[in-house]
Amino acid sequence: MFKHVLLAADGSDHSLRATEKAIGLISTQDDSFMTVFYAVDTQTAKTDVLHHYDGDMLKEERKKRLAGVEEMLQKANVNYEIVERHGEPGPAIVQFANESEFDAVVVGSRGLNGFQEMVLGSVSHKVAKRVEAPVMIVK
């Protein structure tokens, strides 16, 4: 079992399945902790601002995307925090994971941005190649 797990999530079905697996990996000890990482890419940020120009509405909309993940973590009594960063998801996850000490990183095989995965390469592939901790990719 792991004490500190990084879960890359965007609210997609794959990230919900990844959440389930991450919960299974984390230790049940009180000092275990999960960090949920949400990367807001440039296109998502632009769309969010156009649809939710009010800052509070924007924060609420982003929070809704991870509501399923949060619900699962709360039901499992997992200690967690949510970290949001702006940038392309692959490099942002890699940078954050490598700057911290995680026992494992869990990521879904696909996210909400299917176009980016087709054109630029898979986020999960970038994470698996460049993160220094063990990586689990969940289909």
Automatic annotation (TrEMBL):
Residue ranges of every copy of the UspA domain listed in the record: 1-139
| SUPFAM superfamilies hit by this protein | Adenine nucleotide alpha hydrolases-like
Query: Which superkingdom does the taxonomy of this entry point to?
Result: Bacteria
Q: What family classification does the UniProt entry report for this protein? A: Belongs to the universal stress protein A family.
Q: Which PANTHER family match?
A: STRESS RESPONSE PROTEIN NHAX, UNIVERSAL STRESS PROTEIN UP12
UniProt-recorded name of the protein: Nucleotide-binding universal stress UspA family protein
Q: To which species is this protein native?
A: Texcoconibacillus texcoconensis
